[in-house]
Design brief:
By secondary structure, this protein is mainly α. Helix content is 64%, strand content 0%.
């Protein structure tokens, strides 16, 4: 299968996890370590919510796929083809992915709640922070 350079650029342009990690430092925290969503630009809240939502969906679909693969690999674990260490590592991986998805949900809800009346005249994108 040959990749079209135009589509490769499109695929790299939308990396929700990467962009979310670059945008999160732009949120303003109050002295109580609470994000002051009211003091954040609406376009930033919209972009964070969209990226977090896309990331959650990707993580949940991937977690489901790994779970199905793990269930179908039970005979290979029994006969030693797959080590118990690998099964344990997958379990920890699945736990962490679930935790990330669980943590993203309140972020999406808060961003959407504080942005409920936002209607941009045209789509905007926030520039990501470069580390």
């Amino acid at each position: 299968m040959k990749l079209d350079p135009k589509h490769v650029g499109d695929a790299l342009a939308h990396r929700p996890a990467r962009r979310l990690l670059q945008l999160l430092p732009l949120l303003v925290a109050t002295p109580g370590q609470v994000v002051g969503y009211a003091h954040v630009e609406p376009v930033l809240l919209e972009q964070i919510a969209d990226d977090a939502d896309a990331l959650m969906a990707t993580l949940q679909m991937g977690l489901s796929a790994v779970g199905q693969l793990k269930a179908h690999a039970a005979p290979e674990v029994e006969d030693g083809t797959f080590s118990s260490d690998m099964v344990e590592a997958l379990g920890w991986f699945m736990s962490e992915v679930s935790e990330i998805s669980f943590t993203l949900m309140p972020l999406v809800v808060a961003c959407r709640h504080h942005n409920a009346d936002y209607a941009p005249p045209h789509p905007e994108t926030v520039q990501s922070v470069v580390f």
